[in-house]
Amino acid sequence: MTVIGDGTNDPDMIGGDKLYDYDFLIKNGHENGIKRMTKTIKESQKPLSDKLMSLEETGPTALGPALATGVAMAAEGATGS
């Protein structure tokens, strides 16, 4: 699983057994929210759009772990991020 955040930092990769560790996913999501969601939408729109458009499916998806991480990140993101 790739964590992109607001698109202004290098992505973070999560894989292996960590995808099944709920406590890790929530903790990592909070940490990534603080680190990767610091810009406003106005500041991050272009880099985030570029990263979104360059995404390609390369194997199995991790929807459950992505949702857990994303919700934890959203709880920590800056206003307008």
Which series of helices and strands comes N to C? EEHHH
Radius of gyration: 12 Å
Give the strand line-up of the largest sheet: 1-2
Main sheet overview: 2 strands, antiparallel
- Beta-strand content bin: under 5%
Average pLDDT over all residues: 89
Overall domain count: 1
Distance between termini? 21 Å
What global shape is seen? flat
Percent range of helical residues: 40-55%
What would you say this structure looks like, in words?
The chain is mainly alpha-helical and 81 residues long. The protein has one domain. The chain has helices spanning 22-36, 41-53, 63-76, and strands spanning 2-3, 12-13. Strands 1-2 form a two-stranded antiparallel ribbon. Helix 1 (22-36) crosses helix 3. The longest helix is centred in the middle third of the chain and has 15 residues, at 22-36. The protein is flat, with a radius of gyration of 12 Å. The mean pLDDT is 89.
